């Protein structure tokens, strides 16, 4: 089982997303998305290589989906670590400049 590590940038992204959803769509929608993100993290801990590779975002970069959001992460086989880097809206122009390692 891979260890999930969430970078401070991804943690801030999550907080912003949940606050926005709570304000605009209601508490139940925000809670639903918390559950969806948690389910993705659980799946990544079991199957870290299950998501699409994105070499344009980094050598070990992959992208998981919680529509309409994308979870950008690196997976290191050496340490068996999933490092969640960012959580962004899928309609953004996602490029390497948005990701800090």
SS-derived structural category: alpha+beta
Tell me which CATH architecture applies here. 2-Layer Sandwich
The biggest beta sheet is recorded as: 5 strands, mixed
CATH class category label: Alpha Beta
Task: Give the overall pLDDT as a whole number.
Answer: 97
Proportion in β-strands: 25-35%
Short description:
With 101 residues, this protein is an alpha+beta fold. It has one domain (3-98): RelE-like (YaeB-like fold), CATH 3.30.2310.20. It has helices at residues 8-25, 27-46; strands at residues 3-6, 52-53, 61-66, 69-76, 81-89.
Describe the protein:
This protein has 101 residues and is an alpha+beta fold. It has one domain: 2-Layer Sandwich (YaeB-like fold), CATH 3.30.2310.20. It has 2 helices and 5 strands. It has helices at residues 8-25, 27-46, and strands spanning 3-6, 52-53, 61-66, 69-76, 81-89. A 5-stranded mixed β-sheet has the order 1-5-4-3-2. Strand 3 (61-66) and strand 4 form a beta hairpin. The longest helix is centred in the middle third of the chain and has 20 residues, at 27-46. The protein is globular and about 40 Å long. The model has no long low-confidence stretch (mean pLDDT 97).
Which terms summarize this structure?
101 residues, 29% strand, YaeB-like fold, alpha+beta, globular, 5 strands, five-stranded mixed β-sheet
């Amino acid at each position: 089982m891979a260890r999930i590590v969430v970078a401070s940038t991804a943690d801030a992204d999550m907080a912003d997303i949940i606050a926005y959803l709570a304000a605009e769509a209601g508490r139940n929608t925000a809670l639903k998305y918390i559950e969806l993100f948690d389910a993705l993290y659980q799946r990544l801990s079991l199957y870290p290589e299950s998501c699409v590779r994105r070499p344009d975002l980094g050598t070990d970069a992959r992208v998981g989906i919680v529509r309409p959001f994308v979870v950008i992460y690196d997976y290191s086989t050496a340490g068996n670590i999933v490092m969640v880097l960012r959580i962004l809206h899928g309609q953004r122009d996602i490029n390497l400049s948005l990701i800090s390692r």
